[in-house]
């Protein structure tokens, strides 16, 4: 899990750096667009002079008897021309202001990405220290992280997985061995309640002692003394026979009942643990399938967002789209890439969890 967390953070760092490069290119495009001269803006707002002059003589010829009312017309043409040039100048100023604001907004996005990159670097450093601690290494030991982060190929059947869990899971094996120990103890307690007969030999080492004679010793005493002197220094071998009958049988019966209850407890614990592992397997399988679907979804969305981003950048260059749409699509692209890395890390973590549930037997019992 710690390794997949490091890979996920590394992929997020790569995605943020790639998106920063995209924003840098977009900033260059916005600067070029802002710096380039505006062509054709004045002519688009100016009034054609030839059309106005052709209509003026007609009006003047029809009203010659009214004292030359056609004289003010040239002033009107001049006024319209000044207004159109002022409008063009205002449009040029608004376009320049909009271009500068686009550049500043892109720089704001770049600053935010820079902060995210620094935060990810700090988090990766902390996770590396934790990973080195698991490996019993120094915190600053180098860890090589892969550039690409792909999901682990994994195929399994739920029924076969459950069979392998019941056969290989170390927790179930521990509970099973515990039940066998209680069963053996119950048999021992039962045999301890029976009468016990012991047969054996007792061997005694006897050191040779110096004989002592007393002047007042009688003849029978002398005979016994001679006999002891003849056995002096000889080791003694004595056959032994012992019989023990348990009087307080209720003690052993209570021990047998205790062992029976503990054996039953072990069986119930085994069944409960097996059901818990089965439920955990189904839950992990659901999370695995969900992560697999998310990976496919985010991959498709990332491809579509990348295509949309390329198109909308071209529209931004040609002036058909504004920067808001470009930044929105760029954020969507980054979001899909980060979600894809999260889903891949979740998928690989679920695969590791299933391997942990199934476990492995590398050494078969002799």
From TrEMBL:
Compositional bias segments (type: Low complexity): 38-69
GO CC annotations on file: cell outer membrane; efflux pump complex
Keyword Coiled coil annotated: yes
Keyword annotations from UniProtKB, A to Z: Cell outer membrane, Coiled coil, Membrane, Transmembrane, Transmembrane beta strand, Transport
Coiled coil: 103-130
Gene3D superfamilies reported in the protein's UniProt record: Outer membrane efflux proteins (OEP)
InterPro entries listed in its UniProt record: OMP_efflux (IPR003423), TolC-like (IPR051906)
Sequence ranges of Polar residues compositional bias: 70-96
Pfam families: OEP (PF02321)
PANTHER family reported for this sequence: OUTER MEMBRANE PROTEIN TOLC
Protein name according to UniProt: Transporter
Organism of origin: termite gut metagenome
């Amino acid at each position: 899990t710690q390794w997949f967390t490091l890979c996920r953070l590394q992929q997020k760092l790569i995605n943020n750096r790639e998106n920063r490069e995209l924003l840098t290119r977009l900033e260059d495009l916005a600067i070029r667009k802002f710096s380039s001269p505006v062509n054709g803006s004045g002519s688009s707002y100016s009034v054609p002079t030839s059309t106005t002059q052709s209509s003026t003589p007609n009006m003047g010829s029809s009203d010659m008897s009214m004292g030359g009312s056609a004289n003010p017309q040239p002033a009107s043409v001049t006024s319209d021309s000044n207004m159109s040039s002022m409008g063009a100048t205002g449009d040029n100023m608004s376009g320049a202001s909009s271009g500068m604001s686009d550049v500043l907004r892109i720089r704001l996005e770049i600053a935010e990405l820079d902060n995210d990159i620094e935060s990810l670097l700090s988090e990766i450093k902390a996770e590396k220290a934790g990973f080195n601690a698991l490996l019993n290494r120094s915190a600053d030991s180098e860890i090589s992280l892969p550039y690409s982060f792909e999901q682990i190929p994994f195929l399994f059947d739920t029924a076969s997985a459950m069979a392998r869990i019941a056969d290989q899971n170390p927790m179930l094996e521990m509970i099973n061995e515990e039940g066998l120990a209680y069963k053996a103890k119950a048999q021992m307690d039962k045999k301890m309640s029976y009468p016990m007969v012991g047969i054996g030999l007792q061997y005694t080492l006897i050191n040779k002692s110096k004989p002592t004679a007393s002047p007042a010793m009688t003849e029978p005493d002398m005979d016994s003394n001679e006999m002891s002197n003849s056995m002096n220094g000889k080791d003694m071998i004595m056959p032994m026979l012992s019989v023990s009958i348990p009087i307080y049988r209720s003690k052993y019966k209570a021990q047998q009942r205790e062992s029976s209850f503990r054996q039953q407890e072990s069986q119930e614990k085994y069944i409960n643990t097996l059901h818990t592992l089965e439920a955990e397997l189904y839950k992990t399988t659901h999370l695995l399938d969900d992560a697999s679907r998310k990976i496919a979804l985010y991959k498709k969305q990332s491809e579509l967002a990348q295509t949309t981003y390329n198109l909308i950048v071209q529209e931004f260059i040609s002036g058909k789209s504004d920067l808001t749409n470009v930044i929105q699509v760029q954020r969507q692209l980054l979001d899909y890439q980060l979600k894809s890395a999260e889903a891949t890390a979740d998928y690989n973590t679920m695969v590791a969890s299933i391997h942990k549930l199934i476990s492995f037997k590398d050494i078969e019992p002799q």
